[in-house]
Amino acid sequence: MGFSTSKRVLILVPLILLVISLSSLNAASNFIDEARSLLKWKASLNQTNPLLSSWILYPGNATNTSSSSHLETNASPCSWHGIRCNKAGRVHVVNLTSYGLKGMLQEFPFSSLPQLAHVDLSVNELYGIIPPQIGHLSKLIYLDLQINLLSGKIPPEIGLLTNLTTLHLSENKLNGSIPRDMCQLRLLEELALHMNRLDDSIPSCLGNLTNLFWLSLYNNSLSGSIPREIGKLSNLVELDLDTNHLTGSIPSTLGYLKKLTVLHIFDNQLSGPIPEEIGNLESLWI
Ligand SMILES: *[C@@H]1O[C@H](CO)[C@@H](O)[C@H](O)[C@H]1NC(C)=O
Ligand SMILES: *[C@@H]1O[C@H](CO)[C@@H](O)[C@H](O)[C@H]1NC(C)=O
Ligand SMILES: *[C@@H]1O[C@H](CO)[C@@H](O)[C@H](O)[C@H]1NC(C)=O
Ligand SMILES: *[C@@H]1O[C@H](CO)[C@@H](O)[C@H](O)[C@H]1NC(C)=O
Ligand SMILES: *[C@@H]1O[C@H](CO)[C@@H](O)[C@H](O)[C@H]1NC(C)=O
Ligand SMILES: *[C@@H]1O[C@H](CO)[C@@H](O)[C@H](O)[C@H]1NC(C)=O
Ligand SMILES: *[C@@H]1O[C@H](CO)[C@@H](O)[C@H](O)[C@H]1NC(C)=O
Ligand SMILES: *[C@@H]1O[C@H](CO)[C@@H](O)[C@H](O)[C@H]1NC(C)=O
């Protein structure tokens, strides 16, 4: 009895040690995978930003390899400029706004950064399409790609990012229609698609995004009428639909937007009177 118990313990101890060392190895290799995937994207970019010289795998000198924490501290991207990690050391924020990046999003590690929640790549010279793989970033809360040179259609896969509260794709060269899939983004508070080349009509299902407080679609080639359903956006503070090819009359349902303070609808082909209901709105700037 005593013999077999101690024998079991003897077998268990190395097993536990093996499990512990395997899981710490696993954590370290996660950091390295995340770092490598970011470096692969960096290598695809044409950039000369000195801040990005902090993006290297082993900043320490090779003479320091004896340190046991070497692998984890040096291979982790958490200390790189523009990167922030969560407590578990996984990449949580990529913020490279105004870094002078020239290149495409094709090599961006959409599938290698499972904890990524905030992406700000605004004000760079990113061109080419927004890859459909962007739909893999399921933890994303904040996505800002504004003021770049991105073209092609907005991928419908963006509708998979149901945790998004902020989506800024404005001031690019995006064309095609506003995907209906965007109406799945129920937590969205800010949707900015202005200054692109979007055409077709405004999807009426955008009226389901009842958390929106800013909807900005100005300076595109949107046609058709302003959907009555926009009147369901009861949290809307600013609505910018100007400089498009919108036709028809201004829906009276806009009168339900009690929080609206800015309504921009000029420079369209709208007809008919301004509905009385809109006149009832307090604190409105047209
Ligand atoms: C990188 O950008 C510079 C300046 O715009 C340009 O001269 C060079 O050809 C580009 N290199 C590549 C590989 O695109
Ligand atoms: C090597 O490690 C020592 C002690 O941790 C540190 O003082 C030194 O700056 C390191 N050298 C390099 C080149 O990282
Ligand atoms: C490593 O450290 C030595 C001595 O401090 C230095 O001469 C060498 O350039 C360093 N190597 C790198 C890759 O930083
Ligand atoms: C990104 O960095 C800029 C400038 O440092 C800052 O204003 C902005 O709030 C940051 N965005 C995110 C999502 O952290
Ligand atoms: C949204 O975030 C929560 C919490 O991080 C996560 O559990 C959930 O899977 C995310 N949603 C999607 C569609 O992945
Ligand atoms: C949309 O933009 C892409 C890429 O610039 C272009 O190839 C395509 O012809 C454009 N489509 C339309 C309908 O303009
Ligand atoms: C609309 O946007 C284009 C660039 O996309 C810009 O050149 C033009 O001046 C803008 N028009 C207005 C009226 O803002
Ligand atoms: C979303 O909006 C569309 C069109 O306005 C409507 O038919 C649909 O029932 C709405 N869906 C939900 C879940 O509210």
From TrEMBL:
Please give the organism.
Hevea brasiliensis
**Domain Leucine-rich repeat-containing N-terminal plant-type residue range list:** 33-86
Which residue spans adopt a coiled-coil conformation according to this UniProt entry? none
* Listed SUPFAM superfamilies: L domain-like (SSF52058)
Its protein name is Leucine-rich repeat-containing N-terminal plant-type domain-containing protein
Q: Which InterPro entries match?
A: Leu-rich_rpt, Leu-rich_rpt_typical-subtyp, LRR_dom_sf, LRR_N_plant-typ
Listed A to Z, the keywords are:
Cell membrane, Cell wall, Leucine-rich repeat, Membrane, Repeat, Secreted, Signal, Transmembrane, Transmembrane helix
Q: Does the keyword Glycoprotein apply?
A: no
Q: Where in the cell is it found?
A: Cell membrane; Secreted, Cell wall
Q: What Gene3D superfamilies has UniProt attached to this entry? A: Ribonuclease Inhibitor
Mention any Pfam family matching this sequence.
Answer: LRR_8
Q: Has keyword Disulfide bond?
A: no
> Out of the domains of life, which is the source?
Eukaryota
The residue range of the signal peptide is 1-27
GO cellular component term, pick one:
plasma membrane
